[in-house]
Amino acid sequence: MTDATATDVSRHDRQGRRATLSRHVLPYAMLSPAVLVTLAIVFFPMVQTAWMSLHDYVLFRPNDFDWVGLENFRTALSDEVFWISLRNTIIWMGTTIPAQLLLGLVTALLLNQEFPWRPVARALIIIPWALPSVVIALMWVWIYDSNYGVANEFLLRMGLIQQSIPWLADPDYALASIILTLTWQGFPFFAVMILAGLQAIPRSYYEAASIDGASAWRQFWHITLPGIAGVMMTAVLLRLIWVANSFDVIFVMTGGGPGYATHTLPLYAFIKARTNLDFGYGSAIAVLFTMLLMVVVVFYLRRTGKAVS
Amino acid sequence: MKLNRITALASVLALTAGAASAESTVRFWYHFDNADNPMNDLVAAFEEQNPDITVEAENIPWNSYYDQLYTAVIGGNAPDAAMVKMFAQPRLVEMGALQPIDDWLVEWDGADGLQDNLLELTAGPDGSQYYLPVQYVVLYLYYRPSMFEELGLEVPTTCDEFREVANALTRDTDGDGQTDTYGFGFRGAQGGHDHWASFTLGAEGVSLTDGLTSEAGVAGTQFVADLFQEDGVFPPSAPNDGFQEIIGAFKAGKTAMTIHHIGSANGMVEALGEDVNAAPVPECNGGRWTAFGDESTAVMANAEDPEAAWKWISFLSSEGNNTMFNEATGQLPVVKADSDGWSLHPQRFVQATVDSLPFAEMLPSSNATADFVNTVWPTQMQRVLTGDIEAAEMNEAIAEIFAE
Prior knowledge:
Chain A is mainly alpha-helical. Helices cover about 75% and strands about 0% of the residues of chain A. The longest helix of chain A is centred in the N-terminal third of the chain and has 50 residues, at about 5-50.
């Protein structure tokens, strides 16, 4: 081996090592800013919340930060309002998300058909989703208003009710009224996601099924539904997390009232922490809710993992 | 040479420091319902008099005013001065968020010009003065004279008369089977404690801190519940109704009476002309109670230039400026000279305010008051109105937070 050849080999080695090193290091270097930001703005507050939940921390006594262990959690579990809020949260999530899914599915199937002005209809359907939550909440407060609201006016004129109903002031209707508002707000998300899924199903499947004599229902059941199952599951999971964490619409529409009729756990945690300034107890409620949500999410991920495989 | 250079550098630093202290900025938080408020004019007038001070006045929405203030105090980002109410004082003092103003008050010419007794009323829980009054109101009963005349009714002076009148005024005026007018617009949402208190706290020996769970105390809450559940004299939306709803319904003729202060008077006259009048709240269970609505300003403990912040708040409570301030809020000036020539409200509303002053009271100076106002009262009242709990349970819940 000549000196020139030896030098070439060692240069190649160095280049190869450098390339290997950069392949190992570069992804971490590129990812680290995002990871650091996430750690700072997501994980640090989460740890801080968990830490505060173990203390008696009332904001207007900022110098008192006494360790109380699990006392806040014990208080929460014996707190009537916690259980009312949990019940409302289950009803709220258990009805809002399926209702949004169903309405979104029907809308997506309709929007997937050929009809004039279809692009306009597809654009219009996104409006509820695009509007800010506060605007939606204020708009629906007026719709439900017992004196001037169009909901009562419409139902009275149709003869479906004899007296105006105070939709948001009656505990029997308040939560259902908010669920209807949230369903209206959230169904476009499902519609758009499912529509994207529908467009990914090859038309040849339907043609083949038609030749074999499959009815529309069987085509839906055996081609459409399996084709959009993955999209639907992802959308449901995302919505589950979003709906669980959102309380803005409820806060603006009723503030959790009348009484505790529309209190949900995120709202209760917010009121305790922000209005009553009891950050220790508010954090404990938030931590309990996060744990409950984690159970649902893990269970759901396992189910969807199995279903997809 | 070196010494010269150091001297020159020191001079530059001194000049810079001098310039910095001469150019102060006062961050001021306030809450006005009135969208076309004249705060800009007040700021301009102040800055003309004090060219070395810049005022950054920020209108914070009322619904979240105290949430934001407390959070800003804890976060170390509180304003230099702020509008504040008495119920918040114990909490703010406990947080160490306020700067005492006693020394400035001694030297201030305007102190003698304030309405009698206002500084005593707003004294801090530890004896120091933190608050400088800037406006006040007293709550009274608004009513629609035309509706009373049509039915030959007199303005109620007792709770029994009130109930009778409210029942008569609740009626279907066009015969379609729907109630068109309700006797009273009750505020069941946050801020409605003043309505409830007028029916409850007038009784002998009943206050928020004492006797609330007695028979007389519970009878007051039960009276409110009966008006809604049995008599139906409040609109069905009453449990959720806030300020906008009760004032809107009164102006629209949906309710014949409601309770509020002079701050709403001009808006009501604009909507109803002469067909709106005012009277003191009725006597209930042998006594009368109405709310003294206070508003002060304070220098915050973290103020960068407390002297400049004091100059600004004392400017707002000075003759002439206090009139401008109250033009925006529609409330009453705290400066005697400004009150004497007061012509911004029709006389009948000023008279109702003056007539109500002898029995007007403030909420207790207690840490529990903020929770009572913000969460405990609205939640418990709504539960009583919707039949979820009994009147006695509500009074017990309120008594409990004041006992802690």
